[in-house]
Amino acid sequence: MNALLQVEGLRLGYGRADVVHGIDLTVPRGRIVSLIGSNGAGKTTILRGLSGLMKPRGGHIRWGQDGADLAGEAAHRIARRGIVQVPEGRQVFANMTVAENLRLGAYHAPGAEAARRQEAVVARFPRLGERLSQQAGYLSGGEQQMLAMGRALMAEPVLLLLDEPSMGLAPLIVEEIFAIIAALRTEGRTILLVEQNASAALAIADDAYVLETGRIRLKGPAAEVARNPEVTAAYLGL
Amino acid sequence: MLEQQLVNGVVLGATYALFALGFTLMFGVMGVINLTYGVYFAVGAFAALWSTQALGLPIAAALPLGALIAGVIAVAIDTLLLTRLRKAKAPELASLMVTLGATLFLYAGMAASLGTEIRRFPAAVFDGGAYDLGAVRIGTTQILIFGAAVALVVALMALVRGSRLGLAIRAVAENPDAAALMGINGGLMLRVVSFLSGAIGGAAGVLVGLNFNAIQPFMGEHMMLRGFAVIIVGGLGDLRGALAAGLLLGFAEVLTAAYVSSTFKDLTAFALLVATLWFRPLGLFGRAAAKRA
Ligand SMILES: Nc1ncnc2c1ncn2[C@@H]1O[C@H](COP(=O)(O)OP(=O)(O)O)[C@@H](O)[C@H]1O
Ligand SMILES: [Mg+2]
């Protein structure tokens, strides 16, 4: 198996309390892996650990062909390796324009290359194209989510980490967002998708992990996880 | 002699605007009020004085050298004092107190090693003469002060508002975590900002020192009071507001000194500050920041 990211025994916490208790997780190249779990399970904490915004308390984050250990590396370095996170709550630069937000996504690319990528992003999210000079803080929630994803795509990420892209959005917008995630999968992008919206996340994923209070409770092909009676009862509301 | 006072006001206002710009940049990006900023003002002035006296440099070379030295010291002090506090996400008050302590320490150190008597630039610095335009007399030094202040203001605004580096600096100021996710090295950007604002403060010190031809360690302390007035009047962290407020304060001081009394000059800044807080608490151009979603 061609693992792009291999997490072993990752431990994370705040203050004195551990919140993530040594999880293992594998993201194969070109796949969508979903990490589902209820509010407070530790999903965001895991993504922040992977992107370097939080320092792991233990374990390894092996990356790419050579299996370099990213645990403890600074966030900006991890981003430059191609691991790009779309954070929970979008975190767009509210005081800047849509165009400036996109430029920042491709910060390390030269201007001409950034312009080329911006065209591709605008083709994917036409609504951003109409609002390039608008201040990001005044966009609707759905538009901000698109901007956050577009900004991440500006970096041409090798691995995209999505933290609850559907949170707080109207059902139609959620459909739109998930259609774009599916399209990214078809184009061969690798995605680790964190969601509370378990049914949508399981429908789109190749593999799935179920997180409960900082531990992996279940894992396997997404279709199998979706059929698991415990999952149907607890997360799919069936 | 109103015309003459207006010319003097423009020149002084330009230096205040420059000073305010550096202070606002530091505050706006770092999010803490760094009281050591006044020290860089005095350091720049002393470094330029030293390079004209001891090295015999012309003022055109002493100005950038003074700015450079002040900038490097600003980076060193910020790294020493505030890096740990930032890492620990210490409350703003802790950072403010640390910079207050450092400021008192540094002023005392400068006073002890440099003395508190007022120093003056060598006469050769002012050799350029003056131009008479009708009733108005403009010294070449005044032209230099004004030209340098305007050039630095324009350069800094172009950097912050119009360059890729400036974009990264604004990103770090607004949301350090999101900026890191874009691959931007936040620590490096903070050092760049420390350097820029220290250098701007130092350059302002050189120019104000030239304008009044008076240099002493506590000149920065007096100036900080004006710095506060300017960032309050201009709006916290607002670069354009700082520019306008700096100019306004320069004019107000010159006119007060000319038509009221020079002893009232120092009251002007506070009158402006209090009036602004009273009538426009967000500053002259103050807008509430866009809501973060
Ligand atoms: N900044 C923080 N400080 C302390 N505890 C936190 C912080 N952020 C999250 N937690 C705790 O960590 C646990 C996991 O949170 P989180 O990773 O946000 O969960 P999820 O994303 O799955 O909803 C929760 O119990 C939460 O209360
Ligand atoms: Mg979360």
TrEMBL record, chain A:
CDD domains: ABC_TM1139_LivF_branched. InterPro entries: AAA+_ATPase, ABC_transporter-like_ATP-bd, ABC_transporter-like_CS, BCAA_Transport_ATP-bd_LivF, P-loop_NTPase. It holds the Pfam family ABC_tran. Keywords: Amino-acid transport, ATP-binding, Nucleotide-binding, Transport. SMART domains: AAA (SM00382). Residues 5-238 form the ABC transporter domain. Coiled coil: none annotated. GO terms for molecular function: ATP binding. It comes from the Bacteria. Belongs to the ABC transporter superfamily. This is High-affinity branched-chain amino acid transport ATP-binding protein LivF.
Automatic annotation (TrEMBL), chain B:
The keyword Transferase does not apply. Signal peptide: none annotated. InterPro entries: ABC_transp_permease (IPR001851), BCAA_transport_permease (IPR052157). Belongs to the binding-protein-dependent transport system permease family. LivHM subfamily. It holds the Pfam family BPD_transp_2. The keyword Transport applies. The gene is livH_21. This is High-affinity branched-chain amino acid transport system permease protein LivH. It is found in: Cell membrane.
